[in-house]
Amino acid sequence: MKIVASLEDQMKITTLLMLVMMLHTANGSAATGTANFQHLNVREALAGTKIHPMSDLESYQEFSKSNTTAEECKLKLNLLHRDHITSNLSHHHHHRLNERIKRDINRVTSISRRLHITKKITKNDEGFVEEEFGSQVVSGMELGSGEYLVRIGVGSPVRNQYMVIDSGSDLMWVQCQPCTSCYQQSDPVFDPSDSATFTGVSCESTVCNRLDDQNSGCGHSGRCRYEVSYGDGSFTTGTLALETLTFGPTTVRNVAIGCGHRNQGMFVAAAGLLGLGGGPMSFIGQLGSQIDQAFGYCLVSRGGTGSYGSLVFGRGSVSSSSATWVPLVQNPQSLTFYYVSLVGLGVGGIRLPIPEHLFELTELGDGGVIIDTGTAVTRLPTQAYEIFRNYFVSGTVGLPRVPGAQIFDTCYDLSGFEMVRVPTVSFHFYGGSILTLPARNFLIPTDEMGTFCFAFAPSNLGVSIIGNIQQEGIQISIDGEKGLLGFGPNTC
User: Fold this and answer.
1) What is residue 26's three-state secondary structure?
2) How confident is the model at residue 302 (pLDDT cuts 50, 70, 90)?
3) What is the fold of 37-49+92-114+134-488?
4) 93-105: per-residue pLDDT in tens?
5) pLDDT for the residue numbered 110
């Protein structure tokens, strides 16, 4: 008699086999078995869902020297969570997370759409001040654009402004007077007529010509105009100008920025956006060789108390002997995004049987893996994600499961635990480098009651994205000149 197992039975058998494999690996070597699991502090993670406003925002602008030698002299500002600069602290974590995921879905869809558009990009050869400098990064994961903020000075005299940092965008811009349409920001809207260093850009200038044809035009005044739209419906339009930006004691002159007179969208609290992408019009592209196309950031971990992060520029500030360096992969079809050489995933010390081609960037610019500050949740090809998730579930059989939430399909009720043991989760890169994530970076609370979810999601949009939840608390260094990306210790 022929017996055909149901799909449910087949899945149970597969799960059992994976569990046996993981237990065999963990028990087969006493020396390495404990390294295949780690502990998640449930109570600490839940405490981090509560937001506590800071009473003294002025400390945000104070520089402090890091613990480095005099030769390195790395400037670093004290940081605070972006939630501290909004007056609306009444929403519960569950509501804030739901809103963040909605924005995240739009972000991922927008990235996929942008990657299917071939853009004409020319190299920027403008020269700027050669100096290493830094500024503080503020987490904006719970509101607004769902990204992170940096406070910099704009114009002369200096007007301090909060700006979203975005490794997936190029053009920098701020809201400007006169404002035909502006959203609410925490600082007064920048007025270019009060700045002695503000210079409009003509349509015939080489700077204007560097704008993408779809994002530029010529106004009635002969001034270069720009227009940028984002995946969530946000947009900014205005004129292009050269202006002075100030990062603490460091001044950078003649930076091309957008002066936005019509702006709308999810940029709550921030005055604009600081583009850190790889294109010629980004802040990194404009400074170019002056900073060796090198910058680094450490995104603050979730939680409203004592959370700080950093943003630094220049190879002397990002180089670290303790960092793990992996190759960047260039996509000629899109210079903006930073592609990394991910080749596989690991759970519980095992590299999973996932075909490498699922992460490959094709010659046509399809596929590949982006590391992005603006995306929250890491997206993986559906086939890779399902293998990844199933192995993780096999290593958490003792934890009570609950229905999924939002884009998460693997969730647990940890309300009765103070500490739980979970298998390690790791990224495998070309050349053998492995990044093992802290437990808090892949099992996150979705409410205040103790529901935690596996913070990854499947995607059929082609490109994979390593999101900012997985990057939190890890020093990320990008050396565009050498074509390397580094994962270092927590230096937030």
Assistant:
1) helix
2) low
3) Cathepsin D, subunit A; domain 1 (2.40.70)
4) 777 777 777 777 7
5) 76
Secondary element (H or E) of residue 99: helix 93-114
Buried b (16+ CB within 10 A) or exposed e, 434-458: bbebbbbbbbbbbbeebbbbbbbbb
In this predicted structure, what is the pLDDT of residue 265? 74
Contacts of 127 (CB under 8 A, 6+ apart): 290
Buried b (16+ CB within 10 A) or exposed e, 217-238: eeeeeebbbbbbebbbebebbb
- Smallest Cα–Cα separation from 240: which of 270, 272, 280, 198? 198
Domain ranges of the chain: 37-49+92-114+134-488
Write down the residue that tokens 């700045």 correspond to.
Answer: 195
Give catalytic status of residue 125 as yes or no.
Answer: no
* pLDDT per residue as tens digits for the range 238-295: 999 999 999 878 889 999 999 999 998 766 678 999 999 999 999 999 988 888 889 9
232 is catalytic: no
Beta bridge partners of 465: 370, 379
Q: Which residues pair with 236 in a beta bridge?
A: 228, 263
Question: Active site residue: 83, 104, 166, 292, which one?
Answer: 166
pLDDT tier at 131, thresholds 50, 70, 90: very low
Please compute Rg for the chain using Cα positions.
23
The residue annotated as part of the active site, out of 104, 170, 292, 372, is 372
| Between residues 65 and 447, the one the model is more confident about | 447
Q: Which residues pair with 475 in a beta bridge?
A: 298, 488
